[in-house]
Amino acid sequence: MIRYFTAGESHGPALSAIVEGLPSGITITPEDINTELARRQQGYGRGGRMKIETDKAVVLSGIRFGKTIGSPVALQIENRDWKNWTEKMAQFEKPNEDIPAISIPRPGHADLTGMIKYGFEDIRPVIERASARETAARVAACSLAKTFLRSVGIQIGSYVSSIGPAGETASSSRLESLLAEGAEALTKEADTSPVRMLEKTDEENAVAAIDKAKEEGDTLGGIIELFITGVPMGLGSYVQHDRRLDAELAAALISIQAVKGVEIGTAFDNARNPGSQVHDELFPGAAHGPSRKTNRAGGLEGSMTNGSVIHLRAAMKPIATLMSPLHSFDITSMEAHLSHIERSDTCAVPACSVIAEAVVAPVIANALLKKTGGDHLAEILERLEEYRAEIAAKFKQ
Ligand SMILES: Cc1cc2nc3c(=O)[nH]c(=O)nc-3n(C[C@H](O)[C@H](O)[C@H](O)COP(=O)(O)O)c2cc1C
Ligand SMILES: C=C(O[C@@H]1CC(C(=O)O)=C[C@@H](OP(=O)(O)O)[C@H]1O)C(=O)O
């Protein structure tokens, strides 16, 4: 099974990740990792930090002659901003006593509870690790699972459906025709927009909403639509709570900083409608399994993939650091004070959609590996093809 960990402070020397359990024989190019890192840095509404960083991963182990060798892959990404933080983030001796402690927590960030929990008088260490800078290491780590899935015909893609009040008008026929080519066709199309939206008017409205929020010292969140195509029926299981694939996918998405809601298929609309208008009716005889005219279940029934496209939505809350700050207090003096301000994004929903694509990859890869077993790509592919053929034969008319 694929497991990964990340380490690194936002303004420390580097981020690192160790990915373990990848099958051997997967072809990996530096672009497979670095393209995802570059995509994560895009998006209208980001702050000054993204002008400093040009994220690239150094591979320290686990890949030989362009292929995984089954051993752990260690990755490192330089923080270019570190050179501006060597004193404030010195690992050993405190270089001087003039480094001020931050003592006014930002509502909505990890600041207040983090400093109480870990016993700090300065919020800085909380900011450093709670920061979504960590997602650069996660995206690099997960890009390996994403590449593995691509090599067995499973693609992950996303677009941003709304930012603040703007969006939600993407046409379903456009979406369907992109998804028919595979989820990566959708994602490539979304990548051409600075806010990763599919409709020009949505894009213009979103850019205007971000500009307005920035002008007012405010921030915006939004909603991400995520799709996974090429997934065979029967990944995941209903037999035990910790084998439920819908739960694992939701957990992966909620683990992203600022993601507070996940929807599977059209779950919230489904809750408002009777079963007769919700459940995806079954019809015999499509090429690779039963056919359905709808996909309100989002490709998951009984916590297993049902052969339809997996469709998830994730809600990102607005960024917590406001340039027109909210009420807070100084934890040292206990006096009321407007909250701490530091360099920040106005909106990071487009970046978040790229992170969302990444974090679901190991979840799907592990569900696949549980089904096929196998330690190297060739044997996994052989077993998967056999399984796909079995399913196709079963539903053939
Ligand atoms: C890509 C990305 C960029 C973010 N940028 C910022 C930022 O610039 N300023 C900020 O206050 N929060 C930012 N956040 C959100 C915080 O990291 C997050 O709200 C904080 O760690 C508290 O965690 P929670 O929101 O999950 O409770 C960003 C999140 C993501 C996914
Ligand atoms: C560094 C990244 O995002 C950061 C996430 C973040 C936060 O609080 O989560 C705060 C900001 O950090 P800084 O204070 O250095 O500007 C963002 O730029 C990144 O995505 O690579």
Automatic annotation (TrEMBL):
By its UniProt entry, which PROSITE patterns does this protein fall under? Answer: CHORISMATE_SYNTHASE_1
Instruction: Quote the InterPro entries the UniProt record gives.
Output: Chorismate_synth (IPR000453), Chorismate_synth_AroC_sf (IPR035904), Chorismate_synthase_CS (IPR020541)
Gene Ontology cellular-component terms for this entry are: cytosol
What processes does the entry annotate via GO biological process terms? amino acid biosynthetic process; aromatic amino acid family biosynthetic process; chorismate biosynthetic process
Its Enzyme Commission number? Answer: 4.2.3.5
Q: Which keywords describe this protein according to UniProt?
A: Amino-acid biosynthesis, Aromatic amino acid biosynthesis, FAD, Flavoprotein, FMN, Lyase, NADP
The residues the record assigns to binding NADP(+) are R40, R46
In which pathway is this protein known to take part? Metabolic intermediate biosynthesis; chorismate biosynthesis; chorismate from D-erythrose 4-phosphate and phosphoenolpyruvate: step 7/7
Q: Which reaction does it catalyse?
A: 5-O-(1-carboxyvinyl)-3-phosphoshikimate = chorismate + phosphate
Q: What terms describe the molecular function in GO for this protein?
A: chorismate synthase activity; FMN binding
Q: Which domain of life is it from?
A: Bacteria
Q: Where does FMN bind?
A: R129, A130, S131, Q257, A258, G302, K317, P318, I319, A320, T321, R343
Required cofactors, per record? FMNH2
Region (Disordered) residue ranges read 273-300
According to the record, how does the cofactor bind?
Reduced FMN (FMNH(2)).
Indicate the enzyme's highest-level EC class. Answer: lyase
**Sequence similarity:** Belongs to the chorismate synthase family.
Sum up the protein's function in the record's words: This reaction introduces a second double bond into the aromatic ring system.
Q: Which HAMAP family match?
A: Chorismate_synth (MF_00300)
**Tell me, how does this one assemble?**
Homotetramer.
Q: What is this protein called?
A: Chorismate synthase
What does UniProt list as this organism's lineage? Bacteria, Pseudomonadati, Chlorobiota, Chlorobiia, Chlorobiales
Q: Which gene encodes it?
A: aroC
